Amino acid sequence: MAFRLISSKPSNFRHQTNTDVGNSVAATTLTPPDVTASDYAEKLAIELGAPSVPGLKSDHPAVAWRRAGVDAITGFPDSDPLPAPVALTSAADGALAVLKSFGSAAGLPTTGALLLGERARLTGLTRKGRTAPGGDCHLIDCLDGAIALNLARTDDWDLLPAWLEDDGVDDLNSLQNALAQCSGQEIVERGRAIGLPIALADGIEPTRPWRRLTHFRRREMTERAPVVIDLSSLWAGPLAGQLLVESGATVIKVESVNRPDGARRGDPDFYALMNAGKSSVALDFHNTEDRRVLGALIEKADIVIEGSRPRALRQMGLIAEDWLSASPGRIWLSITAYGRRAPEGEWVGFGDDVGVAAGLSRLMRDAYGAFVFVGDAIADPLTGLHAAAAALASWRAGGGALLDISMCGVIQRIIDWDAAQLDRRDTTVALRARAEDWRGVMERDDAELYPLRAVHRRKIASLGQDNERIIGDLHPC
Amino acid sequence: MSIPVKAGMKLHSVVCSGQIMVLRAPAGELDIACGGAPMAAAEPAEKTALDPAQTAGVLVGKRYVDADETMEFLCTRAGEGTLSVNGVPLDIKQAKQLPSSD
Fold this sequence. Notes:
The complex is a heterodimer. By secondary structure, chain A is an alpha/beta fold. Chain A contains 18 helices and ten strands. In chain A, the strands form two sheets. Chain A has a seven-stranded mixed beta sheet, with helices on both faces. In chain A, strands 1-2-3 form a three-stranded antiparallel beta sheet, sandwiched between helices. In chain A, helix 9 (268-275) links the parallel strand 6 (250-256) and strand 7 (279-283). In chain A, helix 3 (88-100) runs parallel beside helix 15. Chain B is an all-beta fold. Chain B has no helices and eleven strands. In chain B, the strands form three sheets. A five-stranded antiparallel beta sheet of chain B has the order 2-3-8-7-11, with no helix packed on it. In chain B, strand 7 and strand 8 (72-77) form a beta hairpin.
């Protein structure tokens, strides 16, 4: 099926404005002046109680989109790259600015937008329309709309016959045929109940806060750098941990020997960027002695980062609330797809499907006429940035917090912030006008892409490299 | 009590709160039990007594397999009974390998 963009009328919407556009773009653009990284940063800083970020300069959303390389992975393969009609790059730049406001800017990336396209540029991903650039997440039509299903875990293919009650489903084609007969709402509910990463493309996911904060006892404010145990894997959690490394924290990555971070098998440069500067401890979570060591490590930590469903760690005897109650000033940074509450705390989600759940593909449909993925697992880097900023803000304020970060909530927060600037009389018309305008901005920009960050592979700890030193420190004798 | 089993079928324990979904099963009939009693297609109105020798429990979200992995079940609600098929207890399947990217 050929994909055609909604025909674009000659734009009546372009005016001369004096916006903060990048230096090589002509200023004949319509850019609602409120959709800026500066505005995003200011609001986020207030919400987090972080220092204010005065006079933040950053590139126009469409310019940053292109220079971060996210344009190349958004759209259909045989059509032009598309800008998302929402200022995701400005949110990334703004969140990074908040993180930098705490003082240690030196090792942090130059722009937040850079992080959105980093993995795709390192691995040479391309835009695939209704399949995410990574190749595992698919937008598939059902009876009454479309769903996104992420099959990044090969074991999830085994769930499909039971999910659809159809033994014949064993490839993408049979999956598409079976789903064409299903109601989206029902099939998404059923899929979530059995642990599939799945979302409705045009349904409205209830808006949930990006950060649910439960207070525990604080300690006195401190300038001391925190000790962080990072139990997370893949992208959002490790990125948050790495941003904390660059902000001065001591971060120990703790992995299961049986089930180490899957990203170790992915692109080594990307893995290096997400984990540079962390020590590595590997433990057998099924072994009693190793479980004791894990408990002792966490006992000495100021911040725990984890990206598991709440019950997974509870089944291992790690109870966030107990740990937070045991000593003042601790921070538990939980990063999940939809937050920790029931029932959504049981749902699985990854960066691509969660972006769809939050409404990004619906916005693409509204702006361009077809559901299509936005970027590469885009909820991951945006969540990593927000999570790090939230954790650091809490640490500086004396800690004592369970930070329940929802990836879907982060994207919803950005969409809501952005939509507040759109013309409310007819948001679809406003969205299309903006999309058309931003495509022009993108096309006229011919500057170099943002330089990729330097990769220092020597800073990468091999699995369990620091076991002896760190576990030895636990019981000095 | 053996019953025909199909992928997607839900089964309820009659001795505890346990619930499972059949993910894969060989053709033919199976005797699927929880806590020593055959599991039912519908939630029983009243629970019967749990066999005290069959209390390994089922954990929500875990997959259960037989020794040869010819069949696989997903626990959709936790319970106290031991899952067994044709009298042989099932084991927890090793956690899913994490993807290398998402």
